[in-house]
Design goal:
The chain has 2 domains: about 160 residues, Spore Coat Polysaccharide Biosynthesis Protein SpsA, Chain A (Alpha-Beta Complex); about 80 residues, no CATH class. Helices cover about 35% and strands about 20% of the residues. It is built from 9 helices and 9 strands. Strands 1, 2, 3, 4, 5, 6, 7, 8 and 9 form a 9-stranded mixed sheet that branches. The longest helix is centred in the last third of the chain and has 27 residues. The radius of gyration is 19 Å and the shape is globular.
Length: about 260
């Protein structure tokens, strides 16, 4: 099919091979934009026929759009390195006549996993996201966090994308090489947002209440509780760090705001 697969990477040696092979089931071209991996990510990607390019990390949506200049096809399928197409999704995509479809994009539902456990609470399912789209009609929004493809003319597909989100419960609280609270605090600070002494507790408590009671974490057993606590912890730390940037010049001076991670 005339689809280009795109992946953005940073130290994804363990994941990139399976991701590329998954894309190659429906894509005849795969583009990898790497942001300076220290492992064999690029080497592995090249060995599987992917075209690789290096770009210092610019933020989620912006980084994904970097790949578009290297794509040969109008239609683009974007995956993260820890995502895979299910067999059902492969077949569904193959059945789409992209040359005649009235849609500019297609959304897929993600099955998010912790270990081998499919997590359905806390809005982790069906978690619809646009991942297949025409690059001349739409693209990822130029945002640094929570990247998404804006479109009003899209169709939801029936089949699922598999997301191996975390290896285990410990990974939920501290994913290796990812510091989401610092990243979020930096982005808020650069946007001119400010916190007060109540902000960390209010945001942390609010995040727990919403995810555990409103979004069904309470129905998810220990995984639902752990996920709700991890989300609350991240929210608390994000605003605690933002407040620290405001009140401690030494911490602010030591922080590199050009590096998100």
């Amino acid at each position: 099919m005339d689809i280009t697969g795109i992946v953005t990477t940073l130290n994804e040696e363990e994941n990139i091979a399976d991701c590329i092979r998954s894309l190659q089931q429906v894509c005849d071209e795969v583009i990898v934009v790497d942001s300076g991996s220290k492992d064999r990510t690029v080497e592995v990607a090249q060995s599987l026929g992917a075209k690789t390019y290096t770009q210092s990390y610019l933020g989620d949506g912006i980084q994904k759009n970097v790949a578009l200049q290297y794509t040969s096809h109008l239609w683009v399928l974007s995956l993260d390195a820890d995502e895979r197409l299910s067999p059902e999704l492969v077949e569904e995509i193959r059945q789409i006549d992209l040359s005649a479809t009235p849609y500019e994009a297609f959304a897929v539902k993600r099955k998010n996993f912790v270990g081998s456990r499919w997590i359905k609470c806390c809005r982790w399912y069906p978690d619809y996201l646009i991942r297949l789209y025409r690059k001349d009609k739409t693209r990822f929004a130029d945002v640094k966090q929570h990247a998404f493809v804006p479109s009003k003319n899209y169709k939801k597909l029936d089949s699922a994308l598999i997301h191996f989100r975390y290896k285990n419960i410990g990974d939920v609280f501290s994913k290796p090489e990812r510091n989401y609270s610092t990243r979020g605090a930096k982005i808020l600070y650069l946007k001119g947002k400010r916190a007060n002494c109540f902000s960390p507790v209010l945001h942390g408590t609010g995040a727990f209440f919403v995810n555990y009671f409103i979004r069904g974490g309470i129905l998810g057993g220990i995984d639902g509780l752990s996920l709700s606590l991890a989300i609350a912890n991240n929210s608390y730390l994000k605003y605690a760090k933002l407040l620290e940037y405001q009140r401690d010049p030494k911490v602010l001076e030591a922080e590199d705001f050009d590096q998100v991670w």
